[in-house]
Amino acid sequence: MHAWPASEVPALPGKGRDLRIHDTATGGSVALDPGPVARIYVCGITPYDATHIGHAATYNAFDLVQRVWLDTKRQVHYVQNVTDVDDPLLERAVRDNVDWVALAEQETALFREDMTALRMLPPRHYIGAVEAIPGIVPLVERLRDSGAAYELEGDVYFSVEADPHFGGVSGLDAATMRQLSAERGGDPDRPGKKNPLDPMLWMAAREGEPSWDGGSLGRGRPGWHIECVAIALDHLGMGFDVQGGGSDLAFPHHEMGASHAQALTGEFPMAKAYVHAGMVALDGEKMSKSKGNLVFVSTLRRAGVDPAAIRLALLSHHYRADWEWTDQVLQDALARLERWRAAVSRPDGPSAEALVEEVREALANDLDAPAALAAVDRWAALQQERGGTDEGAPGVVSRAVDALMGVAL
Going from the N-terminus, what domains does the chain have, and what CATH number goes with each? Predict the structure, then answer.
């Protein structure tokens, strides 16, 4: 599966700062020192309704991670998946009386278009669950053969007790885990499971649903969590720098994925930092496909909204915060974009060297994009009030905003 084209990232003078970021597993800030190649895995969409503002907010956060690393002169090895076979996708296809493969391809293509328009840097590897199945099957067999997984009526389940570190990503108690498991695709009440929290690794073929050859597992399709594990281990290996996604993925998805990988390899941890973006609400409720309360990036673009303004609207909230999309959020972003473009359109201006360092520091400090925006706002206000004599300053600001925040002025 191919990703989307990369926008050019301007080179800035000097060098950026190492990233300090909030780690869900420890509950505190961690200083990341990735070495010459930083490794990041971000969980992708299930392509049955793309791309809403909640998606865009999540991918904006991890685009900032990449940009901070690139500014430190590192390479970035970024991997993202597409869950192109899963219950929600199949259910939507049945509801709309369309082919599930065509639906997945259509929504994935739209996602690529939106990511391109928003200037999100693409992953080096963009992998669909279906194409990953040949690599998933041997992992499930290994877990079963080692005693870390077991069969139940043809399905294969992972035993959470096989990983002594289980629970360490989300830090939740068993009762909360059980509740969230039921709400987020698990089956804690299924009779015969060793532990209600045990997640499915391989679902035996069901009538009327797609299935693939699973070798000794029989025909079926993979569970949700093992899909990402197989892709991450194949392309990044254990101990990569950042596992990212929305905050609703901390449990069960990232918790289970970490345990799968740790049981498979005997190594700990799967990722050095588990980083989660907040949820976006609309009309007082979390924006989600199941509730249908969605604002789509493509709809905004078709209405003529500049993608740079959409990006500024996302940047105006700290990535870990839960926030609400409103028309005022967008209007504020449009006004900011107009002010910034007017400021950099002049032939000279106030010196921008300190501004670049201020933006770098803000983003290195747990991706504090609102602080970075405020710094540019102050420069733009100074430009409007009294201008300056530095002929290179507007160009420096324009390149810095593009390189570090993905906003083209």
Answer: 20-286 (3.40.50.620), 308-405 (1.20.120.640)
